[in-house]
Each structure stands twice: as structure tokens, then as C-alpha cells.
């Protein structure tokens, strides 16, 4: 089935745990890489070359194919001032675009608020996975969080809609001493009603979906298949989110990192083929990011938390190429043993918000940041 929905869509893939940027886009032309990584360096004959300096991890063939077609942008040296090696704090910084303070709203939640200012569509944003990434958190903005499209929703085992409504109302009264009229109960009922509405709509997506693409049997592939189902159903969803990990490769990195990228790259390849079949590829932008990179020097079989990572922008409308600057590996240029970041992640956010979603990025990223050219206006 080819969807008639041609609105631009953003799909965000988070590589949870701190993806090793040096073993993702490998500086195989730089001897310092091999000097620092005798235990986990990827040999020159294994790398998928981009040019004489860098190449993709050998387990990223599908991403490399996008590069070869000019549909992949490598954003090198991405990070932020005063990098933090805590998973929790660094992810929170990326979620809220607030490196210097504790943010109160997520950047994607703010984007959804601006895309649907009247809150008419409870499915403008959809997360695939349990819980809700803080990137989506914004006052008054509903976001569906889906584990399985077939069972999504609050009280999904109750089939009769009237029974579910009464059950939700009972839940609201349980949390309010004044006949369920307090703000907590009101919020519960509103969120429950939105969940019911979203569940009923989302359950139609698999029924409306038809594709010849067979996805791999991995969690990230299942999430991206779900994203394709929602997108092809034309439900007005503009932002979708998926996660995969853990990329926290303190040990056994060569084997672990290889499998992780096999899963992610394979899923992206299936998703790309599916969107092309649905007629949606040119209207889809995929952002792949991780909260930080790893240290330059290995610890024997793995690598510890660092900074100065890599991100990717993928899509039919992407102007492929290298953006930012690959960080120096010279010891004098390192930041406490880490790669020094060469561009602020908010430049990438601003580019996407402005040039892809048509929004004013400055209030969302809390300032003005230079934009990249991987998207035309």
C-alpha cells in the first residue's frame, strides 16, 4: 500500500549507552587510532571506506549503502560544552537541549506542541518502547508510548469501550478525595481518555499496512516496522522514536558493538526499503544519536565513557556528506583523554526543527545555533 500522507516525518533512533564513535566512523587512515586501540581497533581491511581518512564499521553495510546514494550525512564530533560522562545527565541534556541547567521540557515535546498547538491529534508523537523518553515531556502534550501495536493502550485487556471508560473514571475517583474533582484525578481521566483514543486509532495501523519487506527479528527492527505501519496509515504522526542498546561497551566491545550495529543497520535498511515501497522515503528524516562517545584509549577489551561522538541524518531529502569536523586524535588536542567536541548538538536540532519541521528552533534549543547544510530549506 502506498500512503497518500506526504507530511514530513522525523524518526529518531537513540543508541542508548554511549555509542563508540571511533569504532563507528573509523579513522582508519590515522595511525594514532591504532596506537590508542591495540585491543579494539578495527583493521583497515575490514573498514567500509568513505574516503582515504575514514570508513564505516564493517557491520554498517546498509548505512554505507545510503552513503553511497548520497542519502546519509555524518555529523562528526557532535557534543556539548563541559561534557558529562554520566549516562543519566548526558541523556537528559540531549533530551532537553539544556547543557547548563536542568530542563523542564523535552525538545521533541516542544516541537509537537508547536506542530499541533491546539492538541487536536493525540498521535502527533509516538514512541516505540516502554516508558516515555524525556525528550517527549512537555506540559499539555500527549504522546503515545507503544510496546506492541496490537495491545497498546490503558487497560487494553478490557474490550468493551463503555466498560473501559467506567474503569478509567473509577481510577480517577480513587486518586481524588473530593469526588474525583481534584487536579490529579482530572489529569488521570484526561490522560486515560487520550490513551483510549490513541489505542483505538493505533490498532487500525497494522490492518491498513501492506509491505513486501521482511524485517529482521530484533527489537529495533520491530520498532521500525511499527513506525512504518503508523506512517503508512496516514494518522498524522510527525515524530516517531525508537531506542536500541546497550552501547555501554566497557568490555568485549568488538563482539558486542558488531552485533549492535548489525541490528541497527539491518533495521534501518529494512525500514528504508519499506518507506520507499510506501512512497514515504523522500518525506522521512532519520536522526541517529547517542548520549556520548567513548574514550580514545581502550581499556584492553572495551572502552570507557567519553565525549565527542557521531550522529547521522538519513533520508531521501538529505544532502549526503561529512558535517562538522572529525576530532583530533593528537594527545595535545584531547580533553582529559576524550575527543573534544567540534560542534554543538543543538546545531543539528536547529537544522532539523527549522529546515525539516518548519518550526522556530530558537525557543526549543534555547538560543541561536549555526545550522548545517544536510537539509535544504
In short:
The protein is α/β, with parallel strands linked by helices.
General description of the model:
33% of the residues lie in helices and 14% in strands. By secondary structure, the chain is of the alpha/beta class. The chain has 2 domains: 9-152 and 213-365, 3-Layer(aba) Sandwich (Alkaline Phosphatase, subunit A); 155-202. Strands 1, 5, 6, 7, 8, 9, 10, 11 and 12 form a 9-stranded mixed β-sheet that branches. It has a 3-stranded antiparallel β-sheet with strand order 2-4-3. The protein is globular, with a radius of gyration of 21 Å. Mean pLDDT is 89; it is low at 1-5 and 174-181.
What top-tier CATH class of the largest domain fits best?
A: Alpha Beta
Mean pLDDT: 89
Structural class: alpha/beta
Percent range for helical residues?
25-40%
Low-confidence stretches: 1-5, 174-181
Topology summary:
Blueprint: E1 9-16, E2 25-26, H1 31-36, E3 48-49, E4 55-56, H2 61-68, E5 72-79, H3 87-96, H4 107-115, E6 125-128, E7 144-146, H5 161-174, H6 183-202, H7 205-208, H8 219-232, E8 239-245, H9 253-278, E9 284-289, E10 309-314, E11 321-324, E12 343-344, H10 345-355, H11 362-365
Parallel strand pairs: 1-8, 1-9, 5-11, 5-12, 6-7, 6-8
Antiparallel strand pairs: 2-4, 3-4, 5-10, 9-10
